[in-house]
Amino acid sequence: MSNTWPYKNDAELREAGYRFDRTETCKGPNCRQEIEFWWTPKGKRIPLDPGTMETHWSTCVDAEKFRRDR
Known about the structure:
Layout: H1 10-15, E1 19-25, E2 34-39, E3 45-48, H2 63-66
Antiparallel strand pairs: 1-2, 2-3
């Protein structure tokens, strides 16, 4: 299974069933970047970097602070 995020823009996200929620600032103390929250087709929110539409988990310098134990 590939971990590559397949979407490059908001049109592709919408076509795949994602819905824009809102823009916020990352709460990571060392990050503080603007992020967009989108609802996935399964009803979960996902943070994305505006413009690149990469998952913010892959770019956030504070990602470990938000990781849940699985």
